[in-house]
Amino acid sequence: MVVTFSIWIYAAYRNLYALRVRGLQYSPGWAVGYFFIPIMNLFRPLQVFQEMWKASDARVRRDDPGAWRHAPLSVLAGFWWACWIISNLLANASMRANLEPNPTVDSIRIATMIDMISSAISILAGILVIILILALTSRQKRKYAMLHEEPAFE
Hints:
The protein has 154 residues and is an all-alpha fold. The chain has helices spanning 2-18, 28-33, 44-55, 75-98, 105-147. It has one domain. It contains 5 helices and no strands. Helix 1 (2-18) runs parallel beside helix 5 and helix 4 (75-98) packs antiparallel against helix 5 (105-147). The chain starts with a helix and ends in a 7-residue tail after the last helix.
């Protein structure tokens, strides 16, 4: 799953060059790589997704190469990333609670509850990222179609 997601991110970011987007802050390799760098992986992947979202907006002016920077951010990406971070923090808390020496029934119950909440939020994050992938792919297809449509003859 991680490999497939990484390949998609690389390809989606690389598509921005074919969409004639200029002034990108990252590269396709770093768009994937930031997921694996401690500390950076807490915020940079969201910034990469927001850049892809904005740069894939077909409504921005074509005559201004930097106009995409003023496109709106993706609320969906923000929710996805918040769910992802929260689920990981809760999973970490649950794991640490399970590592206690001589756990009580109550501490096991609390750790299990935290783990269940983490899992539910993780599932929500998975659903949101699937929707985000589909939406971003659709945006890139629309932008590509607009860039390559035939001019109207009068």
